[in-house]
Specification:
Blueprint lengths: L6 E4 L4 H12 L5 E2 L11 H11 L3 E4 L7 H6 L1 H21 L4 E5 L28 H21 L3 E6 L1 E3 L12 H15 L3 E5 L5 E6 H14 L6 E3 L3 E4 H12 L4 E5 L8 E2 L4 H6 L7 H15 L24
Parallel strand pairs: 1-2, 1-3, 3-4, 4-5, 5-9, 6-8, 7-11, 8-12
Antiparallel strand pairs: 8-10
Helix pairs in contact: 1-7, 2-4, 4-5, 6-8, 6-10, 8-10
Bound molecules: guanosine-5'-diphosphate-beta-L-fucopyranose.
């Protein structure tokens, strides 16, 4: 993939998509097409068709598709599944018909069977049901993987699939209800600190364990996979930072500077008890994550403060004035 190639990051405004656009620009890729705000509505087939006809991308990173944390998966399974199925089908089919050289599709670790052996190896995909809290989204991501493989089988398309661990970083969704655990806890710990609350409540028992990967490392791994992995079969992108939710909550509180008590709401779902990836194949190809986990948490908090923190959290404005007229204390 040379630096003059026309490269399209589908979902350039997503957590991983934004990191990919930043990385490609930093690496001197001058012909990025369809970057926000010029991206078509991927749920509208005619818009995707027109875009591919005009922009004629040679390489595609398919990072598009709505996603969210455990709660959003429970409250909006139809939205998440439909958006991912439509966006993926439209981009993969257009990529084929418009002669894209290579496409990298980003699936999700929640597609693994809930009780598969750990760390999760790609051979265990579709050997059992996924975690019930995210079955719809997980199924859409499995369909995306199978669709890429089907185009490979029928047309010899160089469409490969990568499965990242739980990603986090700048451009994440910091909404306390819909976001993933790291951005949600950063927001909650920050708000608890600003309001001087004695305790921070974490969902679930705190016992589940997750492997996390920083978005910038995911972008780095995606470029590596685009250059060095041809499949068949998907490849895991593990970040190597594995810890319990209770340990994570303590680290986030430290990074944010929250000194209060941490409590657990066991009435909330834990989801998968353990979710770690077997990244042996990627390591064997020579890729390793490079960003230290604690430094990545601190950078993510800093990004939150500069881009997503409620303005009303400055002590002078608390309790009344807001950035959005008529909506007290909201952004
Ligand atoms: O990040 P998260 O929503 O994703 O939750 P999953 C991880 C763990 O953190 C769960 C706990 O055990 C949650 O109960 N947790 C504690 C919290 N406090 C919070 C909080 O304030 N917000 C959130 N969100 N979690 C997702 C899938 O599963 O993984 C998605 O639902 C996607 O579809 C994503 O695949 C990568 O790891 O449980």
């Amino acid at each position: 993939m040379n630096r003059t190639a026309r490269v399209y990051v589908a979902g350039g405004d997503t957590l991983i998509g934004a990191a990919l656009v930043e990385r490609l620009r930093a690496d001197g890729y001058r012909n990025l097409v369809g970057t926000p705000p010029d991206e078509p509505d991927l749920t509208a087939a005619w818009q995707v068709e027109d875009f591919f006809g005009e922009a004629r991308p040679e390489y595609v990173f398919l990072a598009a598709g709505k996603s969210g944390g455990i709660r959003l998966n429970q409250t909006c399974p139809a939205d998440l599944m439909l958006h991912n199925l439509l966006a993926t089908a439209h981009v993969v089919d257009c990529a084929h018909r418009h002669g894209v050289t290579k496409l990298l599709y980003l699936a999700s670790s929640c597609s693994y069977p809930k009780h598969a052996p750990q760390p999760l190896a790609v051979e265990s995909l579709m050997t059992g049901p996924p975690e019930p809290t995210n079955t719809a989204y997980a199924t859409a991501k499995l369909a995306g993987w199978q669709l890429c493989d089907a185009y490979r089988q029928q047309y010899g398309a160089r469409f490969v699939t990568a499965i990242p661990a739980n990603a986090f970083g700048p451009h994440d969704d910091f909404s306390p209800d819909g976001g993933h655990v790291i951005p949600a806890l950063i927001r909650k710990a920050h708000e608890a600190k600003v309001r001087g609350e004695p305790a921070l409540t974490v969902w679930g028992t705190g016992r589940p364990r997750r492997e996390f990967i920083f978005a910038r490392d995911v972008a780095d791994a995606c470029l590596f996979v685009m250059r060095h992995h041809e499949g068949p079969g998907p490849i895991n992108l593990g970040g190597g930072a594995e810890l319990s939710i209770a340990e994570l909550a303590r680290l986030v509180a430290d990074v944010v500077g929250y000194r209060g008590r941490i409590g657990f709401d066991a009435a909330r779902p834990d989801g998968m008890p353990l979710k770690t990836l077997d990244s042996g194949p990627l390591r064997a190809l020579g890729w390793r994550p490079s960003v230290d986990f604690l430094a990545a948490l601190a950078e993510t908090y800093d990004w939150f403060l500069r881009h997503a923190a409620p303005v009303s959290h400055s002590p002078r404005l608390a309790g009344g004035l807001s950035a959005t007229p008529g909506k007290p204390g909201a952004i």
